[in-house]
């Protein structure tokens, strides 16, 4: 089982930035993609972004395109989500998850979640 540890959440004003980190116990084997998800109060969980740690391909939900950037540091087994121009509607608990591919329903292991709060 792959272990995931998240960090970087916090409180920020609208227009500000945060960088989330997702450290995995390993890449490779069944872990070739890391996705970020979020869940706001009263809403269902939604996929935000995903990166293939093998070929570097990235994916984003439309609402964060141009504002968020996902990247990986394979030497550290870590994936980052750089969040710029944050909006109050970005407020949610953010989770990272491991998968073999960036594909809905393919995620096997999940982090604990980290709170992101954006004030207006």
Summarize the structure.
The protein has 120 residues and is an all-beta fold. It contains no helices and 11 strands. Strand 9 (92-99) and strand 10 form a beta hairpin.
Q: Biggest sheet, open or closed, and with what strands and sense?
A: 7 strands, mixed
Structural class: mainly beta
Q: How do the SSEs run, as a string of H and E?
A: EEEEEEEEEEE
Extended strand count: 11
Q: Helix amount, in percent?
A: under 10%
End-to-end Cα distance, whole Å, is 40 Å
What does this protein structure show overall?
There is one protein chain. This protein is mostly beta strands and 120 residues long. Helices cover 0% and strands 52% of the residues. Strands 2, 4, 5, 6, 9, 10 and 11 form a seven-stranded mixed β-sheet that branches. It has a four-stranded antiparallel β-sheet with strand order 1-3-8-7, with no helix packed on it. A hairpin with a 5-residue loop joins strand 5 and strand 6.
Note the topology:
Blueprint: E1 4-7, E2 10-13, E3 18-24, E4 33-39, E5 46-52, E6 58-60, E7 68-73, E8 78-83, E9 92-99, E10 107-110, E11 114-119
Parallel strand pairs: 2-11
Antiparallel strand pairs: 1-3, 3-8, 4-5, 4-9, 5-6, 7-8, 9-10, 9-11
């Amino acid at each position: 089982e792959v272990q995931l540890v998240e960090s970087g959440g916090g409180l920020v004003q609208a227009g500000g930035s945060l960088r989330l980190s997702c450290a995995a116990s390993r890449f490779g084997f069944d872990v070739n993609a890391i996705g970020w998800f979020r869940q706001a109060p009263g809403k269902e969980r939604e996929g935000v972004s995903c990166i293939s740690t093998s070929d570097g391909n990235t994916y984003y939900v439309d609402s964060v395109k141009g504002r968020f950037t996902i990247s990986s540091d394979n030497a550290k087994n870590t994936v980052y989500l750089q969040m710029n121009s944050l909006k109050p509607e970005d407020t949610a608990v953010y989770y990272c998850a491991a998968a073999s591919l960036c594909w809905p329903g393919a995620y096997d292991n999940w982090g604990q979640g980290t709170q992101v709060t954006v004030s207006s």
